[in-house]
Amino acid sequence: MPEAPVLALIAHDGKKADLISFAHKHADLLRQFQLVATGTTGQMLIDELDLDVVRYHSGPLGGDVQIASRIVEGNVYAVVFFIDPLGKHPHEPDIQTLLRACNVHNVPIATNESTARLIVERRAVQDSLPNRDSDDAS
Ligand SMILES: O=C(CO)COP(=O)(O)O
């Protein structure tokens, strides 16, 4: 069986409640991914939803850069990053690094709930489609 795709989940403090609410709504879909997250976000997803999450450092301590590095390595399916547009962030350069890594490597990044929903639902649709390889072989 192929490995589940990697989905990164990140939220600033002012948006964590929104991310947890999103995760509650789509928990079954999220369980179909290998989830990675920045430290505090990941801990909340574990505590509140019992999701299996690989946690990196907290954002201000380099977690965004660690996830950017995974993107550069080429094994991230998509990123859900609920950015707080009203907050000031001491690690703004790290945030820009993560956004830039997604844009350089053409990795989907959702910064709001509507787009995040499209990303996780698209994966479910893909999974329900017939396998094209096996069609070709018949
Ligand atoms: O700061 C963040 C993203 O820039 C998120 O980090 P935490 O999940 O550790 O709060």
UniProtKB/TrEMBL annotation:
Q: What reaction(s) does this enzyme catalyze? A: dihydroxyacetone phosphate = methylglyoxal + phosphate
Q: Which InterPro entries match?
A: Methylgl_synth, Methylglyoxal_synth_AS, MGS-like_dom, MGS-like_dom_sf
Answer whether the UniProt record assigns the keyword Aminoacyl-tRNA synthetase to this protein.
Answer: no
**Where is substrate bound in this sequence?**
H12, K16, T38, G39, T40, T41, S58, G59, H91
What do the Gene Ontology cellular component annotations say? cytosol
For the MGS-like domain, which residue ranges apply? 1-138
Task: List the residue ranges forming a coiled coil, or say none.
Answer: none
Catalytic residue positions: D64 (proton donor/acceptor)
UniProt-listed PROSITE patterns: METHYLGLYOXAL_SYNTH, MGS
GO BP annotations of the record are: methylglyoxal biosynthetic process
Q: Is this entry keyworded Transport?
A: no
List, alphabetically, the Pfam families matched: MGS
Q: What does the function comment of this entry state?
A: Catalyzes the formation of methylglyoxal from dihydroxyacetone phosphate.
Recorded hits in HAMAP family, A to Z, give: Methylglyoxal_synth
> What name goes with this protein?
Methylglyoxal synthase
- Supply the gene name: mgsA
